[in-house]
Amino acid sequence: MPDEVAIPVKEPARRDRNDEVILEALKTLQNPAKGARQRLKFTVPTLVRLTGLSTNTIRSRSWALKALRDLKMATKRASLERQSEEVAKAAPEISLVEALRGRVKGLLEQNTLLFDEVLTLRELLKKRDEKIAELQGKRLTAI
Fold this sequence. Notes:
Elements: H1 12-30, H2 36-39, H3 44-51, H4 55-59, H5 62-90, H6 96-142
């Protein structure tokens, strides 16, 4: 939001007083020292609470709505920039080659474990087949 908001002049006395109240509320929203950005949203209902004016009084001033939009966009931009900086700092700098090496090493270890399991299962199957053949041989001799 620019430092000074341009106010169109139409009704001198009442409009000036309401415009000044709206400007003060916008300054309160804009002022980070008061912590207003932490607690208050940049919306028309917030302006209504801060000013004590009606919703239509605030909505009839396009400059106030534009100022709210500008404040909201500036805050979103700052938030996105802060998040992108945090992500950039948090991300460890690992080269693609190192990441792929680690992935291949993990896959080889997993492959070794699976191969050992296959060999164990083959031995169990071989023992089972031998036991079945032995039992069938006894059965044939008993008949």
